[in-house]
Automatic annotation (TrEMBL):
The chain crosses the membrane at residues 28-49, 64-85, 92-114. It comes from the Bacteria. The keyword Transmembrane helix applies. This is Transmembrane protein. It comes from Lysobacter antibioticus. The keyword Membrane applies. Residues 1-21, 407-445 are annotated as: Disordered. Keywords: Membrane, Transmembrane, Transmembrane helix.
Amino acid sequence: MAGSVPPASNDLPPSSPGPTGPRNNRTVFWVALAAYPLAALAWLIWVVLTRGTEAADVWDYSDAVLTGAIVALLVPLPVLIWGGLSRRIGQALLGVTIGAVIAVLALPLSLHLVHARRTQAFEDKKARYAEFVATVRSHDHARIRKALPALPDGLSAPKALCALGGGATYTFERWLWFDDHAYGEALPSADLLEAAAAIVDGAWTRQDKQATLLVLLHYLSERDEPALFPRWAGLWRRTLEQADAARTPLLASDYRGDTGTCSAAREPADTVLKRWHDAGLRAWLQAGFGFSEEQRDLALRAVRSKPMLQQLTAADPEFAAMLNEGRSEGADALSHLSYELSELLDRGPDPAVPAELVGALREAGADPRRSEHARKPCAVFELSESERRPTVADSAARIAAATRIHQALCPPDGLAQTGKTADGGDANHHRAGTSETADADSERR
């Protein structure tokens, strides 16, 4: 139609169609990839800090691994759900898989780091103990008292002294392997006495002090140093309520704490008298200690010479009463002595010494027939003599001493005839029964 305007044509190019889906990116993949390594890093830090100590054992570490395994099952769930909702489940699965492979390295790495941290803590403890040893060597009592409570793990005073004498200090538990035990350097007894003196003068309880001294006494006995007993006794008296009390029995402490690899519950008389015999008895009496009823039995069995027996009965009249014929303690002392008579005759400085002691015990009233042991002193001595081989080197003094002992232990009343045991059996029968009673007699010894 004339004058009509045709419709304007669209000169712009048609716009390109937009994408049919969400914008392509790899956010899901990278998040999934980082999930496991980040969780493993957090677990690794937690394990090293909580299980990298000497107090932790293999079961503590196993619990941590089990906790990590449970967390590992839960970590990928949010990422997989997100990947599914954003239609990127393939990226999520690939990222989680690669991240899991990387995270597995945290397990061996944790073992290495935990072991290294525990080992370093163990070495640090040993180094600090070495510094304490140097302090003890200085004999500075004030410094010793200050350094002892500062030791790692709070070593008790008895355990510390046990370590100073060569006992165990610290233990490193190697998981699934043998433990590593650290032992202290065995210091001389003079250093141990100085350390004990510092403790006695410190603020520790009486039980702690006495337990420490009993550990020290154990070392003096092991090292056969009876000459140091007077100094030890002086320290012990300083722990008593009445330090100058005469004839105070020397009894074991009722300490129940940690003494390391040493024992503080051992009876002092058992430690001193059984080990040192006359020397121990002499030191005991010179220190002014008395005897309890049980200790008197030990003391009587420890006598090895007539002069010591006389000194013992003069110091305590109860010993004379124990040797009366109406009591069995003297006979039991003869029984214990009879096991050693042949050896004393062979190795002693003078064969007459044991013979004089047996005679003195008999004169004081000890009757071998009253022994409560399974084998009487006469039978034990006869058996010991029959089992040794006489030699041409046997001196006349040894032969004469053995004859005197036999006459004293085997009274001529038919109880112990030649070739007969004290209970009337013949020698062959007695030897056959030796193994049946050896255990019981060894316990009595």
